[in-house]
Design goal:
5 strands; OB fold (Dihydrolipoamide Acetyltransferase, E2P); alpha+beta; about 40% strand; 2 helices
Length: about 110
């Protein structure tokens, strides 16, 4: 009986411990890039973009880019389809980006 109680308590602690983490949010949308920039030490690169289909308000979001080659290929004043995510209050991070209508894109 003690063994079952101990296993049950350990299981409950595991479940509770796994459920309390940072909130992860992901999004995918069309974005129009209005700005590109990087940090003085070249370690961080980002874009500033907004969703052109949101007609009620143009809210700019800052999306961090991990790969410098991807950042180099992104152009300002162009519209892309992008997927991005963030954990808690950390900045958004790009996971995928493509030109609109690019059916031959590698996925």
């Amino acid at each position: 009986m003690k063994r079952i109680t101990l296993i049950t308590m350990a299981f409950m602690l595991f479940i509770v411990g796994c459920s309390f983490g940072e909130l992860k949010t992901s999004a995918s949308s069309q974005i129009t890039v209005v700005e590109k920039d990087y940090s003085d030490d070249y370690k961080d690169a980002w874009i500033v973009a907004y969703d052109p289909n949101n007609s009620t308000k143009k809210i700019a979001i800052k999306i961090m880019i991990k790969d410098p080659m991807v950042w180099n290929l992104i152009e300002t004043n162009k519209t892309y389809f992008a997927a991005y995510y963030r954990e808690g209050n950390k900045p958004w991070e790009l996971t995928q980006i493509a030109h609109l209508g690019d059916e031959k894109m590698l996925r």
